[in-house]
Amino acid sequence: MVSTGPVARYAERMHHLIGSGHHIASPLGAWLLLALVGPAATGRTRTELEEVLGADADRAAATARTLLDAPHPLVASASALWERTATDALAEWRAALPKSTETGPLPEQAALDAWARERTMGMIEKFPLTVEPDTLLVMATALATRITWASPFQVASADALGPGSTWAGELRRVLRTPWHGHTCWIAGTARAGDVAVHAAQAKPETVDGRAAGLLVVSVAALPEVPASDVLAAAHEVAINATTFPGRGRRSLYDLPLGETPLWTLREEQTRAFGREERLSAVLPCWTAESRHDLTTKGLGFDRAVGALGELMGAPGLGYEAAQAATARYGRYGFEAAAVTALAAVTGLPPEAVVRVADLRFGHPYAVVAVATDTRDGLPAGPWHGVPVYSAWVARPEELPEADLADRPDLLS
């Protein structure tokens, strides 16, 4: 299991800079991208990037490789590096990226949009950045989840949100926890005080004898608590729920009876063995779509592009960084996706005279087909370099009529 502390601390940093407006984000997606760049950094740039990552650069990169090369069955993940021209200066760093990282020439915008759609189950329609003529390279991560609740919610009147909720007058129906399958509790936190907590489990998937699941945890604090503190508390509560069950939970018998903006606590006469506690919850459906500018100082992307620029011998590169995110929380399930992208840009070169050659094979010529067999760019087997077929082309043929029409399934 990897350490969750650095990601949780980065999440607090990112949400603080985003603000308290309605939004969805994936701090993990941004952190993964920075972690992949980390080993490229040296000197002061590395120190500053490690401060943002909350971990040693090499350790953070190892964590990113672990997560991306062994993705969770319920969280699709992807990473990519595209370069206008592959540079030797980046070769060592590029070779250390996760095996699953896609690499290659910088594609057109339509191809980037298609990558975003394909890696997010269609939830992100557009790549968050636009490729320009001066774009040197683009890095991206993608995360996507679409799950069904193990136990669907019931439906309740919005009045159940309580007389103090403005949402009660805006909505007609909300979600109520089913009789079983969800978990509710009150937790004591250092940042947000006592908070109301609801957790719903996804239907798990069994892989190699292991049950892979997803726990979606909702945390509410008193209205006057700053959003940044509630988000920080929510990360703490959610991590505890999966790794230290019971930590921070308050007994209902230690809390005063009565009404608060977060709950109603009462006593009922019934049959029970001992001091039994029963909790339920009501919460609304919600959706969110967000685009976050990640060039804000403090998020680390300026340090990341600085590291790449130093590695290429091109300090002072310009850059763009952004994240597109979306989520939907409903009666039967939850879905969310995010694409995080970093683009390094350089000034356009000055106009100059260049030479251009158009090669023509207009008379007999030779063709040789050679086998290749490599691993990490190095020869890896006896077939590597073996010429398998050779030809002398002296009788050209007309293009067949059947090949005149475009074949979209073959064009790429």
Structure description:
The structure is a single chain. The protein is an alpha+beta fold and 412 residues long. It folds into three domains: 200 residues, Antithrombin, Chain I, domain 2 (2-Layer Sandwich), CATH 3.30.497; 130 residues, no CATH class; 36 residues, no CATH class. 24% of the residues lie in helices and 29% in strands. It is built from nine helices and 20 strands. It has a six-stranded mixed beta sheet, covered by helices on one side. Strands 4-5-13 form a three-stranded antiparallel beta sheet, with no helix packed on it. The chain has a three-stranded antiparallel beta sheet with strand order 6-7-10, covered by helices on one side. Strand 1, helix 5 and strand 2 form a beta-alpha-beta unit. Helix 1 packs antiparallel against helix 8, helix 2 crosses helix 4 and helix 3 packs antiparallel against helix 9.
